[in-house]
Amino acid sequence: MYTSIHFSPQSRDARDDAEIIHRIALQAVRAEQAGCASIGLTEHHLAGFNTYVDPFLLGAHLAAKLEQAYVSVTVAQVALEHPLRLVEKINLLDVLTRGRSMVALAPGSASKTELQAFGAEDLDRNRVTAERIDAMLRAWAWDGEEPGVDVGTSVDRGLVAARISPASYRHPRPLISRATRTPETIARLGREGTPAIFGQWLTTDGDARDQLAIYTDALLGAGHDQETVDECLRWLGFGLTIVVAPTQAQAEKNWREYVEVGGEGPQAGRLGGAATWEKEWTHREVARASGSLVGDPARIVEEILRMKEAGSHAVRIIPAVVAGRAEDREETFSLIFDEILPHIGTQQLPDPTQIRSRVAATV
């Protein structure tokens, strides 16, 4: 399994921010040493819901500390940014990681709090995201000749008439994927040979294994070269939110406390949070907790191996920890690194210089 630790910590208030961000860097290095194939980052804004906010800035910092693990962004919120700015950010991360990065594109959060802060609350996010991704692909495909490339959309203007810099490390562009849950889009991505990033493995009906067959059938039936097929399959998998403790009983106790206090970040209504986002925060945390796998390390290993047997090649482990419990966070990561990862057959992702880098292209 290609394993990723997904870092999306939450802050109770401003006093938590600096220490949480500092610890992510330390935990990311530990994750690489324990065999993780990638370090997962994401994008959320405001209220401490994702302490570091910007996966590209934090990813650039981690790039100097990691030797083999990729930086994977799941996801970049396309609905919030001009397509050219995203191209530049993704290219720079690609260079700093020497091709060891993957960025999943998606409309992103439906949070009213986030959207109105960027003036995007009235956007048709799905349509604008599709238009912006098309504009990004045009930018990456442009050969640098006149008269330039139009990166405009129905809500953006832009004409690129000079070389986009930095150039990506990979050739012809960075490793890009799409995050989706809809069967139609899953099949289309398979036909296109685009890596697909799925949501949570566990569902109210059991699990999401049906998505694997839809994508794999479309991918293998489209006549892609083996390199494309292999690259897509390396990222084929799900997120798995876990509440883990040394015993099943302790894990269940931690899960009940997580729900009771309102999750990992601000406890809605308890810390005097703004009324405009209290309800939204509580909804996010309840949703996060409802899809969790709760158990001891053996239970977590059992579920990940069940994913693998179903055809999943990758897993994003998403730890959920009760607010203000630094000792529980350390214990959680120790259990993941010492008692879970050694039992699931972790694999490393390939060196980009041997596949689709500009270095390889010029040799």
Automatic annotation (TrEMBL):
Pfam families: Bac_luciferase
SUPFAM superfamilies the record matches: Bacterial luciferase-like
Residues of the Luciferase-like domain: 6-313
Keyword annotations: Monooxygenase, Oxidoreductase
Superkingdom of source: Bacteria
PANTHER family hit by this protein: BLR5498 PROTEIN (PTHR30137:SF8), LUCIFERASE-LIKE MONOOXYGENASE (PTHR30137)
Protein name, as recorded: Luciferase-like domain-containing protein
Source species: Aeromicrobium alkaliterrae
